[in-house]
Amino acid sequence: MAADARLVVSNVTVTFGGLTALEDVSLTVESGEIVGVIGPNGAGKTTLLNVICGFVRPRAGSITYRGRELRRHRPHDLPGLGISRTLQGLGLWRGLSVIENVIAGGQASVRADLVSALLGLPRSSGEEARLRAQARTLLAELQLESVAERPPGVLPYAIQKRVALGRALMAEPSLLLLDEPASGLSEHEMQDLRSLLLSLRSRMGVLLIEHHMDLVMSTCDRLVVLDFGRVIASGTPDVIRADPQVTTAYLGEAVTGSEADDAGG
Ligand SMILES: Nc1ncnc2c1ncn2[C@@H]1O[C@H](COP(=O)(O)OP(=O)(O)OP(=O)(O)O)[C@@H](O)[C@H]1O
Ligand SMILES: [Mg+2]
User: Fold this and answer.
1) What is the pTM of this model?
2) 91-173 CATH fold
């Protein structure tokens, strides 16, 4: 397994002041595999993405991608490393059109003003044409062609989520990190997302954070369950479904409902 492992998270611990957000967490994502990370609110799922992305530093442990340890990397290094992520919210630029948002995703420098400059300058017209063509192909794949020139803010939430995904795909990542891509989607929209995820699998490894069990169970090759920052279970969907500890962690949340209200975070 280790030989062709792409992402290797080894014994990672992250603390924020006195709070241990992740404790001794290990997992791998091979290319061509969808690995799901599930767990109740506050379990450390987003923190896991943040530490992989170089947004927060682990207190202990290591992250290796394609055999190279990522130690001082920053989020702007990610496109060069072949890693893309989507945010738990949308994170789209209001002042840019859909296609400009997507094009921006392929840029190492993620500053809206630089993207605007890139898209307007004669000196870069060849480059711009190439980027636009690539973005058009992606928009077609995501069935977003008809909204390419519109500002994302006027579009339905589910469409905006797909734009955010398109932006992450523009860098042609070999590893895609998705933080709750199905939040706010209807059943039908989730079906579309499911098909899309399965179609991406041949091109990249995917780390999928998601609360929707149906989606996770039907798309993931393996699952890792976090609870209070620790891995409490890992394995195939069938193994996880039958794990009493997982049921307890989840039913505890669902039954009390006490944390469900701030799930949007
Ligand atoms: N930058 C930060 N500073 C301080 N505490 C943080 C920070 N980021 C996360 N935390 C805390 O770390 C814990 C894990 O948070 P995290 O956002 O990773 O959980 P999550 O599993 O993504 O939850 P959710 O399902 O609600 O998105 C929480 O207690 C949270 O309050
Ligand atoms: Mg989160």
Assistant:
1) 0.87
2) Rossmann fold (3.40.50)
